[in-house]
């Protein structure tokens, strides 16, 4: 039986500690990959399942985007607010507490939507992807998935995490399994007025959604 992940203050603090140590190098690399793929450097960005805010912070540092760090966990939001303040980015990043299955933004709101690691915890991926597509502006892009940015970081971090927590390897393999990839690929396919592409390489497994510039009813 698959173990249910607990999201509480303790787990939020643990993830914050890992994000500032072992995982710290991945966020700037993933941000660079997102910017290179999307070409979007200004406007509105939403980081879904932002957690402690690491990816949101990296995106803000590298672009002129105004970033919403969006997460359903109040404990994670509290930590993100502290991290954002410590990086002097409070004027460029705003935290929002909410559910990815019912995103608290209007239609055609965001130029760029990003997310690393959160989709593996979505109860209904098909609904979440429809919500992502709904709030994307025409011509906007979403870059959603999981990974470590490149092969070197992946191999190094995976090996160190297995030593740190032997149970983590099972979770990692399950999340990145062919079965999971198929579920997410199917859940993100057929979105209205959008084209979906899959990136499956050393950077990780990512779903890229490109909203058409011209909308049809």
UniProtKB/TrEMBL annotation:
Q: Which GO terms describe its molecular function?
A: S-adenosylmethionine-dependent methyltransferase activity
Pfam families, per database record: Methyltransf_11 (PF08241)
Q: Which SUPFAM superfamilies match?
A: S-adenosyl-L-methionine-dependent methyltransferases
What biological-process terms (Gene Ontology) are attached?
A: methylation
Keyword terms of this UniProt record = Methyltransferase, S-adenosyl-L-methionine, Transferase
Q: Which residues form the Methyltransferase type domain?
A: 47-143
Q: Which residues form a coiled coil?
A: none
InterPro entries, per the entry: Arsenite_MeTrfase-like, Methyltransf_11, SAM-dependent_MTases_sf
Keyword Transferase appears in the UniProt entry: yes
The name on file for this protein is Class I SAM-dependent methyltransferase
Provide the species name: Methanomicrobium antiquum
């Amino acid at each position: 039986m698959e173990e249910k992940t607990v999201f509480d203050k303790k787990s939020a603090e643990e993830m914050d500690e890992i994000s500032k140590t072992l995982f710290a190098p991945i966020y700037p690399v993933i941000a660079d990959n997102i910017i290179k793929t999307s070409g979007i450097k200004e406007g509105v960005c939403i980081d879904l399942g932002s957690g402690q805010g690491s990816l949101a912070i990296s995106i803000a540092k590298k672009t002129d985007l105004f970033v919403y760090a969006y997460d359903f966990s109040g404990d994670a939001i509290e930590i993100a607010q502290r991290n954002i303040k410590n990086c002097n980015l409070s004027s460029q990043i705003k935290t929002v507490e909410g559910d990815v299955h019912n995103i608290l933004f209007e239609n055609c709101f965001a130029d760029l939507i990003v997310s690393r690691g959160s989709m593996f915890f979505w109860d209904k991926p098909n609904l979440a992807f429809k919500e992502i597509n709904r709030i994307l502006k025409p011509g906007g892009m979403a870059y959603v998935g999981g990974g470590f940015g490149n092969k070197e970081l992946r191999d190094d971090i995976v090996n160190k995490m297995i030593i740190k927590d032997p149970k983590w390897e099972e979770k990692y393999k399950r999340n990145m399994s062919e079965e999971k990839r198929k579920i997410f690929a199917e859940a993100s396919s057929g979105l209205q007025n959008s084209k979906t592409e899959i990136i499956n390489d050393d950077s990780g497994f990512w779903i890229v959604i490109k909203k058409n510039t011209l909308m049809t009813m």
